[in-house]
Amino acid sequence: MSDSQAHLLTQLAACLGPHGLLTNPDQIGPYCQDWRRLFSGRAIAVLRPADTQALSDALKLCAAHVPPVNVVPQGGNTGLCGGATPDDRGLNVVVSLSRMKALGPVDRTDGTLLAEAGATLASAQDAAAHAGMVLPLSIASEGSAQLGGIVATNAGGSKALRYGSARDLVAGLEAVLVDGTRLDLLRSLRKDNTGYALRQLLVGSEGTLAIITRVRLKLRPALAVREVALCALPDDASVLRLFDIFRKRAGDVLEAFEYISGTAMEIALQYVEGLTFPLSERAPCYVLVELAGQDSSLRATLESALEEALEGEVAVDAVVAESSSQVAMLWRLREEQSESQRLAGASIKHDISVSVPAVPTLLDKATAACRALMPDVRIAPFGHVGDGNIHFNLVQPEGMGADVFLREGKTLTHAIHEIVHDLDGSFSAEHGVGQLKTDMMETWRGGAELALMRRIKAAFDPEGRLNPGKVLPVN
Amino acid sequence: MSDSQAHLLTQLAACLGPHGLLTNPDQIGPYCQDWRRLFSGRAIAVLRPADTQALSDALKLCAAHVPPVNVVPQGGNTGLCGGATPDDRGLNVVVSLSRMKALGPVDRTDGTLLAEAGATLASAQDAAAHAGMVLPLSIASEGSAQLGGIVATNAGGSKALRYGSARDLVAGLEAVLVDGTRLDLLRSLRKDNTGYALRQLLVGSEGTLAIITRVRLKLRPALAVREVALCALPDDASVLRLFDIFRKRAGDVLEAFEYISGTAMEIALQYVEGLTFPLSERAPCYVLVELAGQDSSLRATLESALEEALEGEVAVDAVVAESSSQVAMLWRLREEQSESQRLAGASIKHDISVSVPAVPTLLDKATAACRALMPDVRIAPFGHVGDGNIHFNLVQPEGMGADVFLREGKTLTHAIHEIVHDLDGSFSAEHGVGQLKTDMMETWRGGAELALMRRIKAAFDPEGRLNPGKVLPVN
């Protein structure tokens, strides 16, 4: 370590206080690897500020250092694309927000919760529930994922159909720029047309424009009534016809509309213990639908929609949950999808989206392409079909080794992405770009769009020191 | 006119085709003045492109010209802050989108409408209704206001409580940068985390970053049932208690929650013919509430909320509309506010917002301040209280001349804005900054926020030729 590095660490230690700076390699290690173990890098220290001021002061020290110090913000380190993992070049510090986890009181009249970036999503959900409200954002990693990362990656999840993704739920935020400047966008205004949408721009920028330190999240009143049904459909094309029926009859209270392919259902029933198939016969595909609201009329709404679907042969069968345990049982068929596919062998996941009308075409073409390339592959798509977001997952053929499957599967991934690209879709619906997918930005978002993103990056971070190598491909 | 200007106009005429270029001063005049007649400027021509390609080509010609040509985009010219009016310095061309008014077919499954920027909001509403859907955005000038301007100014209006402002309703857009580069962000994806939120950034940028040429707008299913009530309240503090009751009992179907002060109600009843007061006694203030949804249970929801309000003395009286003509009659009490104040004399308007919990404080303090400065002024606030957006309007005292009122009223405006600023509110909730309010940006949005906005402006428009003098104060 050079004298100047040692001096910087001394200054940072003084600025961040006890427990505020980690320099021991054993302690730093976990911050330098993503949880999928796809990426690892190096850092000279982990900064753990206790508040925004300490972070601001620490970043000013980093900004003044020669040679330049790169700064990599990290939340719960649950991201899927390596967006919070430092590289192994230059001088990196990781900024962990995990000590900043205060949850402000819920303001029920404002309908918001103020929280520090290091609070977990689950703790924020609990705080909302304690006040009789709901934070309508839910993802699999919510027990560890932190709000700063949730907002920085514009997390989606199963409730986005009704409530939108993280960007739609952020009423305000505070951030610190890489030079230490504090940016206060916390004001809670439902209408404010005074200049550019900095808040919306920072959401989803994956820590490359600023480090989010506090967020004000929109809450909703808790809903008293849930009605859940599983529908069996004759084919993928009927999924959209069923969606039309439900949007027309229950648009205001449609809480979830989740697709499960026939193969995905079979794998779940085969590999997960305790699941029971609630219909009399298997079908080509299924939709799990939930309505949620304040009054008992939901049941009649659900039943009238199902009646229209069955009469029109949009659905061939349907079952309505009659108790909360049946609600849970039906939802398990959807929620156990990832686990059942893990139990079934190696799998290749595709986080893709297209416009809602294009979903049947996507399913049809991608299935045909995969079938042609690898006839025995288990094609097990499921997901948030109401958002056009399909987890188009492929599971290892029963007679093929995992290594062979993962190697040969690259051609299937390529074929799937070509189909999505032709449909003007997205190669990353929910998970972001991170460092995993930067090489796709040129092809998918190149030209004027990528050029503007680069200029915006330079406007916030002219030296390119904040989370380098993420989102934007290296020139 | 210089030779180079004449040459440019010849080139532009060839590029834009018949009817594509106006150079006659009589024809140009209306484009050089805002409709409130607060601002006027000069332009050497009005460009009226027939499509995006023609606009792109024309802007490339302007970019190549020496000296620089400034470009001012204009929609229906209904803005309230002079955001679409050229200044009288340098070489300006106005770009009018009015020939680009095609409305694509409604995609009912996608729930979107593709439209060119020059289509009026009313024509887009009609196209949605024709397909059995609703474009849930409504403003007073919707018959003339064009979609490009609606999106560029992030228009709000009376339905924003439930559906959000324009930014929340834009699924995609196409724009042209000042150098003629086309930016295609039209893809209709409900989930897409591939880079920075350019679309959200362009919405509300008031034509200073790019010229919006096409938009894809989110539609909603048409709602079959409306229930409307007028509530009389004992004081302004009860407004929020009533809001709490309605959000709890009818959060999903709460379509409108509009405040009318006692004075505003009196002025409406006094000056507008044909209005009838539907309650037995006058009250300090009123709330007009509407629920809208798909089924007949709304009436019971409304009645149970009113019952709770009356029992808790949050409301002192209430009337529920029993027919569509009564619905219209109750809504007229709100909709005639602007007209009645115009009939009552000169008025000074304030387009302000605060967080919802701060509304009673705002009303209380601003009323006291105005009363102290001008005891006889008629303080007649009304507005979108559920959004924290109050039209805090002042009407000329009966014994004072309009000129004196408007002159002396400046001190009242200053006092009101000081109170809003102390409450961390906004001086422009809906109408934007334009050129009318740029001088307020330094005080209200200065420091890091304004500095970043300037750098973003430079990222999109390094020469500062696109709508100069708007949004950002001149250095």
Summarize the structure in words.
2 copies of one chain form a homodimer. By secondary structure, chain A is α+β, with helices and mostly antiparallel strands. Chain A has 4 domains: about 5-95, 2-Layer Sandwich (Uridine Diphospho-n-acetylenolpyruvylglucosamine Reductase, domain 2); about 105-220, Uridine Diphospho-n-acetylenolpyruvylglucosamine Reductase, domain 3 (2-Layer Sandwich); about 225-340, 2-Layer Sandwich (Alpha-Beta Plaits); about 345-420, Alpha-Beta Plaits (2-Layer Sandwich). Helices cover about 35% and strands about 20% of the residues of chain A. The first copy, chain A, contains 17 helices and 21 strands. Chain A has a 7-stranded antiparallel sheet with strand order 15-12-14-13-19-20-17, sandwiched between helices. In chain A, strand 19 and strand 20 form a beta hairpin. Chain A is globular, with a radius of gyration of 24 Å. The interface between A and B is large, with 93 and 93 residues. Chains A, B: It comes from Brytella acorum. Chains A, B: InterPro entries: FAD-bd_oxidored_4_C, FAD-bd_PCMH, FAD-bd_PCMH-like_sf, FAD-bd_PCMH_sub1, FAD-bd_PCMH_sub2, FAD-linked_Oxase-like_C, FAD-oxidored/transferase_4, Oxid_FAD_bind_N. Chains A, B: Keywords: FAD, Flavoprotein.
